[in-house]
């Protein structure tokens, strides 16, 4: 996906370390909508981000609408 394909008002960027709890809440809401138990926690997200060779600035992304995180993805 090209960043220019995002709808107006949305922005793609790397997550900030202080957003782990917000990403945890987003993930929990997504899991609940699917009828599943939470698959992530703030601690687990921070563990993922601390893995060797994982670079937060290039290996993870958030989609932001306004000032709210509405999407998250990572690769490793």
Figure out the total of helices.
3
Which residue ranges are poorly predicted, with pLDDT under 50 across at least 5 consecutive positions? Answer: none
Cα Rg: 13 Å
Question: What is the end-to-end distance?
Answer: 18 Å
Describe this structure in words.
Helix 1 crosses helix 2. The chain is 34% helix and 22% strand. The chain has helices spanning 20-33, 42-49, 56-59; strands at 10-13, 60-65, 68-74. The model has no long low-confidence stretch (mean pLDDT 94). It is α+β, with helices and mostly antiparallel strands and 76 residues long. It has a 3-stranded antiparallel sheet with strand order 1-2-3. Strand 2 (60-65) and strand 3 (68-74) form a beta hairpin. It starts with 9 loop residues before the first strand and ends with a strand.
Topology at a glance:
Blueprint: E1 10-13, H1 20-33, H2 42-49, H3 56-59, E2 60-65, E3 68-74
Helix pairs in contact: 1-2
Short description:
The protein contains 3 helices and 3 strands.
């Amino acid at each position: 996906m090209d960043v220019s394909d995002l709808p107006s008002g949305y922005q793609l960027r790397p997550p900030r370390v202080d957003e782990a709890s917000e990403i945890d809440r987003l993930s929990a809401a997504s899991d609940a909508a699917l009828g599943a138990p939470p698959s992530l926690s703030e601690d687990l997200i921070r563990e993922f981000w601390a893995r060797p060779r994982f670079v937060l600035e290039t290996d993870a992304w958030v989609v932001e609408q306004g000032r709210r995180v509405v999407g998250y993805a990572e690769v490793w």
